[in-house]
Design a protein that fits this description.
Blueprint (H helix, E strand, L loop, with lengths): L7 H17 L2 H21 L12 H31 L2 H8 L1 H6 L5 H35 L6 H23 L4 H27 L3 H13 L2 H12 L2 H9 L2 H6 L12 H23 L4
């Protein structure tokens, strides 16, 4: 690492400071309160699923099927909140320090710019990973106790949600090395929306066998892989029975694939490798950009 100019102790110090700063600004407390409110409200909703059928209560299988689809909607809301949080936390990380003069004070010490960027990224990743793991675990345990339903791949669900959030956070951090926090946040959120729409467009193209539209959707999922990772999260939530029926239905399955709340297949290993390469590339560009910036 010394050949790359990276000092592990400095990266660790910056990561700890990033976590402490997030706690000092009451960010973690705000996320905790919001998460508790969302979990309580959603679990209350799941508690009424058995009564949906009126005089004819739903069967256990029907309860689990309805629960699986509602859980996807809940996780979509959760992923959107995560996207907003990631952008507004990461967007001012570097630009805020530069504008306030903190960066100049830090860099007069034996700290390199690469240490600052990697340390901030590592600290934010730690916050994201712990927060998502804990929140999803509490939600899934509550759903299991109420409806006796558990998604087939809960660990993969957490992994995809963490990866999706880290991707958007990394983009916001990169933009932060050049632009102000507000500008960077708007750009990152705009890119997130374009990726989401592009994913739907790609599914529409695949359903109607339009190669041009399909290629556009694929390109957006490669340029910013948030939608591709969300599709993986959806797939990890779908019961095997729903996937089997959808695949057997042919044309109906192609129609369902247009929805951002359904996925016939999870991401291929090559796509996961692409996401990893994308993150490394964005971090490298962020370091290069910050090194070239005048302070």
């Amino acid at each position: 690492m010394s050949a790359l100019g990276i000092q592990p102790w400095a990266v660790w110090v910056i990561a700890r400071l990033t976590v402490r700063e997030a706690a000092r600004r009451k960010l973690l407390m705000a996320l905790l309160v919001l998460t508790v409110v969302v979990i309580v409200l959603t679990l209350l909703g799941f508690n009424f699923i058995k009564d949906v059928g009126g005089n004819e209560p739903l069967t256990p299988l029907e309860v689990k099927t309805v629960t699986s689809q509602l859980l996807i909607l809940v996780m979509f809301l959760f992923s959107f909140v995560l996207a907003l949080s990631a952008v507004f936390v990461a967007a001012p990380q570097v630009s805020g320090d530069v504008e306030s003069g903190i960066a100049l004070a830090m860099l007069t010490r034996p700290l390199g710019r690469v240490d600052v960027v990697l340390g901030k990224w590592l600290g934010l990743v730690g916050i994201v990973a712990v927060y998502i793991s804990a929140a999803v675990a509490v939600e899934l345990v509550g759903v299991k106790l109420i409806t006796d339903y558990q998604p087939p791949e809960p660990v993969l669900l957490v992994g995809y949600l963490v990866a999706e959030t880290v991707v958007l956070m990394t983009l916001a951090l990169l933009i932060s090395t050049r632009l102000s926090g507000m500008t960077g946040g708007v750009i990152a959120l705009g890119a997130y929306g374009i990726s989401w729409i592009g994913g739907i467009a790609g599914a529409v193209g695949a359903a109607f066998q339009n190669s041009t539209v399909t290629h556009v959707g694929t390109a957006t999922q490669l340029i910013l892989p948030t939608d591709g990772l969300w599709r993986g999260a959806v797939y990890s939530l779908e019961p095997a029975s729903v996937i089997t029926v959808a695949r057997a239905s042919g044309a109906a399955a192609r129609g369902l694939s247009v929805s951002p709340f359904f996925a016939l297949n999870g991401p291929e290993p090559a796509y996961i490798a692409w996401v990893a390469a994308w993150l490394l590339a964005m971090l490298a560009i962020a370091v290069y950009s910050f090194q070239r910036r005048e302070i």
